Each structure stands twice: as C-alpha cells, then as structure tokens.
Amino acid sequence: MSWEDLAAKRKAQVLDAIPQEWRLKELPSGDSVMSVPAESGLLSADELTITESSAAALVKSLAEGKLTAVAVTTAFLKRAALAQQTVNCLHSFLPEFALARAKYLDEYLAKNKRTVGPLHGLPISLKDQCRIKGFDTTMGYAGWIGQIDEEDSVLVSLLEKAGAVFYVKTSVPQSLMVCETVNNVFGRTSNPRNKNWSPGGSSGGEGALVGFRGSLIGIGTDIGGSIRVPSAFNSLYGIRPSHGRLPYAKMANSMEGQETIHSVCGPICHSIEDMRLFMKAVLQEQPWSYDSKVVPMPWRVGEEDVIKTKIASGSLTLGIYECDGNVLPHPPILRALKTVQEKLSAAGHSVSAWEPYKHPFAVDLANRVYAADGGTDIFAALSLSGEPAIPNIKDLVNPSLEKVGVNDVWAIQLEKWKYQMEYLSKIREFEERTGRELDAIIAPITPTAAIRHNQFRYYGYATAINVLDFTSVVVPVTFADKAVDVRPDGFTPLTKIDAAVNAEYDPEAYHGAPVAVQIIGRRFTEEKIMAIAEEVGRLLKL
Amino acid sequence: MSWEDLAAKRKAQVLDAIPQEWRLKELPSGDSVMSVPAESGLLSADELTITESSAAALVKSLAEGKLTAVAVTTAFLKRAALAQQTVNCLHSFLPEFALARAKYLDEYLAKNKRTVGPLHGLPISLKDQCRIKGFDTTMGYAGWIGQIDEEDSVLVSLLEKAGAVFYVKTSVPQSLMVCETVNNVFGRTSNPRNKNWSPGGSSGGEGALVGFRGSLIGIGTDIGGSIRVPSAFNSLYGIRPSHGRLPYAKMANSMEGQETIHSVCGPICHSIEDMRLFMKAVLQEQPWSYDSKVVPMPWRVGEEDVIKTKIASGSLTLGIYECDGNVLPHPPILRALKTVQEKLSAAGHSVSAWEPYKHPFAVDLANRVYAADGGTDIFAALSLSGEPAIPNIKDLVNPSLEKVGVNDVWAIQLEKWKYQMEYLSKIREFEERTGRELDAIIAPITPTAAIRHNQFRYYGYATAINVLDFTSVVVPVTFADKAVDVRPDGFTPLTKIDAAVNAEYDPEAYHGAPVAVQIIGRRFTEEKIMAIAEEVGRLLKL
C-alpha cells in the first residue's frame, strides 16, 4: 500500500471511531467554531456544564459521587468529537477504551468508598508522543502507522494511577520541530477561534482541543515552545517545567537521546488551579522512582507561600522585556506586556526593565542543536514510508549536510553551560543592584498573536528559555484588536527575520487572536512561577 | 624550554615554597610515613592536636576564639609540607596566600565578634581542577604550566564565602582518567601507609594528603571512582553526590562539555560529621544561584530523620553484592562486605542479596563514553608541549581512531536512560517483593585493597554507579590481613580482566592496605546515604 493510502486509512480511523450520533450534520460556515458545542445540540445541558467546568471542580464532584466518571468522560468524548470534526486535532479517538475505564472507576468508588487517586475520573488528553499500551503512536509519520505500543509512557502510567481517564491522543506536526500542526497523515489542525489561524505547535492538537474545551488538561511537550505556543495561541495556561521535574520517559520523540537541550513535558489547561491539581497529582506518584531523569522534588508548599506573602504585601520583584534583540513583537503583544506591567505596578509590585542577555546567541545555539544531525533522525522516519518532509522542516532535514562530531557536541554543551551561568550572574547583579530578589521575568512567548497558517517563523522567544532550562508559565492576557493594535510608524528591522515577522502583521487578519505572555523563573521554580502567573491572571480580570 | 625543563621547574616550585624550617632533614626509610608528623619534631604538640582533630571540632573552636585561623592554618601547612616531602601529593603549596587569608579571618572575628561563615578558618585542600584566581591549574599537563587562572571555580568561591582557607592544590594523574596519580610534571604520588601502594586517583593527591592528615577535608571529583577510590585506599570517607547537587562550574576538566556521564565533585574526609559540615556549608551558599547545573535543593534534615528513625528501630533495608559479574574482588574486600553485613544484621537491620543488574553493560557503556572522542581532547592538551601520554592512558589517547558522531552520542544517551530506568524497576521489584523500602545498597568500590602502583585495572565497581548517577558514600572498613585474607582455592575467572585482577593478589604485599565499601542510594539521596554510612562506621567500631 502506498504511504498516501496508508495515511488516508489511518486518518479515516479517527472519524470512524466517532459514533454517528456524535457527528455534525453540517460543518459550521464561519471562521470560529467556538460556539459549535452549545449550538450543535449534541451535548446535553449537563454535558455543556461539565465541559465548561474546571478540572478541580470536576474531581471534587467525582470524588463526592455527584458526577460519575462515565458521565464526565462521555461529555468530553462528545466535545472532543466535535473538535475533531471542526478543527481536525485528533490522532486517536478512543470511546470504548475510555468508557470502560470510567466504568471501572465508578465501580471502584462505589465499592471502596474512596477514589483511586486525586484525578479520579478526570479525562486527560495526550499529545501523540505519549504511549498507551495497545494503541499506536505515529507522530504524524506515515511510516510509524500501526506500530502498536507495548507499554505506557511513565507519565501515562502515573496519571492512570492517579485516576485519570484517557480518551484521545492529539495530532502533532511531522517531526515535532514546528510551532504549527501539520503532517502527511492527519493533515492540518486549525485554531478553534479562527480556521485561518494555527493552534500553534508542536502540541497544537492539544492546544486546539483544550481551547475548544474538548479537554481541560492536555499533556504537551516543549523543546522550543511546543507547550507554550499552543497555550498562547488558544488563550490557555501552559507550563514548561524545568527538565527533571516531570517524567518524560518512554514517550516517542524526534532525536531521541539528544540531551543538550532536553524536551520537557507539561500540562496545557484553563487555569493555574487546574495546573496545580495536575502537578501535585503527578509529583505525589513519585515520578523519580520510575524515570531516572526526574529529580526527587515533591511539591513544595513553602515555595508557594513565599510568593503568596509577597503578593499579599504587594512586593513582588519582576523584570520585563518586550524585545529580545532579534525580533520586535507585533503591537498586540507589546500592548499585552504593557497591560501586565500596569496591573502589577498598580498592585504595588516592582516591575522594571530586564535586559535579555545575549538572547540571539541562545537562539543560535538552540538552532545548532536542533540541526546537529542534519535531520538524519527525522529523515530516517520519513524514509520508512517515502513520504516527503512537510514544507516547514525541509531546511532542517538534509542528511547530506555535514553533521557535528562528538567534540562539537561537547563544545556546544560547554557554550550552553557558560551562557546559563552568565545569565545567572546577570540575575545576581540585578539583585545586588536593586537589593531585591528577582521573582520572575515577564516576556513575550511569540512575537505574534495566534498566527496565520504557514507564517510561524521566529521561535526565539521560546527557545532562549529552553536553552536556559528555566521554568516558564504562559498566561493568556488579551486578544488582538484592530482598533488599538495599529501598525506603528517608522519600523526599522533589527534582522532579516524581524522584517519578515513585521511584514506579516495585519490588524484585520489578526483581529481577535489570543495574545499571551510568559512568566519565567530560574530552574525548578514551578511552585513560585505558577503562583505569580495565577496572580497575574487574577489582576487581569479586575 | 623543553617540556622536561618546564616540568622540572614547575615541580621545583612546590618544594621551593616550603620554608627551610618545615623541611625534613632526611626522608623516612620505612614503607609507611604515617608516623612522620609525630616523629619529625617539626610540629608542636598543639599542631599535632589540631591536625588530629576533626573539622567539626576545629570550626567550633575557631568560632569560639579558642583557636586562631593562623594557628590552624600553620598546623596544616606544616603537615601538608611533610606530606609533600614524603608522598609527593601537592601541585601548589601556598603558605603566604593562606596565612594572609587566615590573618584576615582572625581580624574579622576580633572586630565583628562573628565568623565569616560556618567554615571560618578551616583549611580546605583543593584538587588541581579547582581554580583559584592568581594561581595556575595544570592537571599535570606540561603544556598548561603557567596559565594563571583569572577567576575562582564556583565551589572555591562559595567555600571562601563560608570562611575556608585555601593553602594547597593537590596532584592528579595526567588526563584524570586514571585511578592512580602520576603525571609528567609532578611525578607519582604514593600512599602514606605504604610507598609501594597507590593513593588511588584521580583525586589521589587529596587522598594521600587527607590520609596523612595534611588536610581534614579535601575536594575531589569523580567520573569513574576518582573520589571514592582515593577515599577507599586511604581509609577515608568520601562522597560521590548525584550530578547537580554540588557546583562543578569553572573547574578545569578533561573532555569539558561531555554531559553523557557527568563528573561530580565532593569531599574526601575523615568522618561523616565532617562531610555533613561541608555539605551543609556549601548548600547554605545556594550554589544553584551560580552554577546552572545545580538543582535548588537545600540540605534536607527530614531525609536524615527518616534514616535516624530506622536506625533507632533497627529497621534499615539494605541490599548487598560482592561481585558485579565482571571481576571478583580480592579476599580482603569480600571479608569487609561480610563484616559490614554481620554488623548491620546484628543491629537488627535487613541485609539481603542485591542482584547487580547488567553491571557489565553499564561498565561497557561508560568506557564507550570515556573513549568517545578517541582521546582527541586529551591529545590536544599533550600536544601543547609534546609530552607523551602516561602509560596508563596510552590506549585511551588515539585520535586516529574513528570518533563517534552526534547520532551515536544520542544513541548512547538513550541506552543510558533506558538502563537507568531498568535499574529503578529492579529496585521497585525488590520493594514490592519484600514489602520494604530499599534504603541503600552495599558494594565493593574497588576489587582490591589499596593497590600497588601501576596495577589498577578494573574501574567497573565505580563506573556502574556513575552511569546510574546514584549517590555513593565510601566507608573505610578494615585493613588487608595476610593471616586471614588467604587466596581461596579453585578460582575460575569470569573474564580476562578478572584473571588479571585475581593474579595481582598477594596477601604479603597487601598486608595492612586499607579496605572499604561503598554505600549506594538513588539519585539525590545524599542525606540518607550519609546517615547510613555514619551508622555503618559506628557499628564497625563497636
């Protein structure tokens, strides 16, 4: 069978798995599909309520027996089915598997009068790098179709221990090395707010699904923005924890074994409350006993409390930058930064300029790592079926290029370490100069609001943070507004890519697109940065 | 100037720095030099008392003003001078620098009525990978002579903040990749207990100096036993913390930037009490604010307490193995393991057989990493002066060999990760089977007692633990005894190297040689493993 036929067959499986009664009679005509769940008539009022609830509220109701896992799972299956039909975000749709699990959980609770764990009955969506025993992981490669996984990824098995229900796997871009979501098997995923926009990537299937509320907590991964960009483009919260905080083991990946810049996993969700539920549930399962790369660091309430105290007294100390020296963000992003700064300042916190130290160097270093093997690893995956590379990664996949050698790898790693330490010294200098501890840095995560398809060009706001291995939490701030986000006069590009990114801005085309910022902290500051992100979110709603 | 002349001149600097009045009139004639300090007449009674004290007791007396930093520093300078004259362990002898620092500390205390920090006035010896601004680091390479360091290593600067005094740097084997101590600049370092034995390596200068009590706490590094072997061969305690616990930044190294198996730093000392003093002092300085590879993990008293409670109730759970499947240890080591097992069992603890999972695989993996660049990096350092490789590393340094490529590096790293996780699963299986949490594993650290020069062949007991990145603490147990450690009958070698190691055993030649074991815990279990090591040491003295 040709790879095209294999791909078409595999893609059809997803739709085939959706029961007829959950199918839309006709597809919506507008750019946005956000109103489909309410208007389709396919979800009951209760199901709409469930899917528009929070994960924290759901697990409470589930534990109290006010909701059944079957009811909750059914609601999310139905909403995910609508997401698939409207934005094409799924890799696998697993209603029977999910409902059997939900039934087991309901019976367990009825019999034992206690939950399996803190996520008892909560459906969690999985990016198609996560392996579930008995199902396939393709990462959008035609050549991987039908390779059935024989064991769960560590995170999957720990979430299961904590009581989660798995019901979908979500689509990714071929190779994962792109911040949009398109591959030769499942095609392109769109942004539920506007079909002309990307949901971001590489966890773009998750971004679209969670943005659509076909899931409340979705697992993403991030080596260069792949959790944070879909979070930003779908008006969601997302965390890129430091490497070693959450278990990545036994997930599929590109360039497996590459440890110079570690890909990390983390949740994409609607609130910090839900993010905290997830983080605490995973850490409670002691992931370090399963994944050797995880540091034995339980959830640290004391770290949260430090921030809460500062919030209460209006004494957070924050740095902020709006341009990394390579690419100036579009007007909606600059406005969002200004809004966040004003809200925080009005609450008494100190927000001062942060000089983004040698970010262009960091971005270049990251690119050298991503391209270190000339795409040999990705090329091998493509060669299994003979499918072509998607246009977005054509430049990356060129195995005829000279690859770096072992001494080059070591040299790059040494450069990375030195750069990371220089960054720490800049933080210490800031703290010595101001006499205040720097709690976080606020920055763009992309130079654009949710972007039009095939226009994602500049990854640097994300990748510099991956090089530093800093914790980063994305906070949704606002939406692009053609009335206020006008093109400024007198733009002089900093770089060639700056000119290209700037040229892409069109107030009309981006009107209504989600706009976010990232809040960055040093390594292993998840508790602190989440607490700050929560406060920023609260202030934005005042 | 030829490299031989440069080396001779540099070596002479060390002796030249020793004042005439601290020089031995004649060198001792016996094999052991352990009695030299007491018999030389060069140290006063007070100086003997000081150098035979503990670091913990000294910092207490220093803080209380009962001892001056000048007096303590002078005592250790003198004893280190004797060590240099008898076992040739130093790279740099720095009396003026040290005494100026000690004087400053005494004045500070007198003026401010408080110490600079918890190590106020304590001399700490530094392996010659540590950089001190204004002095050179040669790592025994003739080509590096005279390159003056422009900044301190991070650990050095944090120890200085904590109040330490630096007075010597100690010798290492050329390239560091050897568990003996010999190079073309400073020659060979001997074991103070017997000039025919090695002090181990690569932190062998430290091992010999601390063993001689020319230092109470010395800084070593360990990528394949280099802290633990010198600790074992000099009847000392030493810790190989997990990577990321202590700051390694800005130290010199071979194969800098190699991150597949991280070299780590740690103390070599006379007791766990002193080790704890050191660890707490360094962690108190928040090394993670300076070295990006350090995890923000303060000293965790709670982890210690868990072990203390188990000790009090005689309920530790320990695994033990005597052979790793590659090389059977010599009789003194097997006896030491049996002794430790008996002492622990008698105290009520559970000690059961641990199957050393695929250690030969781990050892092979480590060797592939160490040899990944065919010695290109080391060869470059040798080429600076034209000096030859020491015989011990000749096989390692062969840049004409094919080097591994970037995809090979990734493949090795993936193998490493999988192996580490398989090991964790073996621990979980043990725990599920026994219903008990595994607190530690007791094992040989070398197959031999302190070894005769040029006989160190098998690194595997150490390197398997480096591959796992497990915490390991060496505990001195006993001394080889020709009366009891007889050659067993009917030895059948497991491997070629097993035959060679076995052939080296000679009860007469090893009589009196220090014998140790290592106590191993999962990643980042320093507090726990140190508490267990302390208890083992206590039980051995009963």
Automatic annotation (TrEMBL), chains A, B:
Domain Amidase residue range list: 72-529
Annotated residues for binding of substrate: 176, 202, 223-226
Coiled-coil region: none
Active-site residues, record numbering mapped to chain: 127, 202, 226
Record-linked InterPro entries: Amidase_CS, Amidase_dom, AS_sf
Cited SUPFAM superfamilies: Amidase signature (AS) enzymes
Known EC number: 3.5.1.4
Recorded superkingdom: Eukaryota
Molecular function terms from GO: amidase activity
Keyword terms of this UniProt record: Hydrolase
Catalytic activity: a monocarboxylic acid amide + H2O = a monocarboxylate + NH4(+)
Family statement: Belongs to the amidase family.
Name of the protein: amidase
Source organism (scientific name): Cephalotrichum gorgonifer
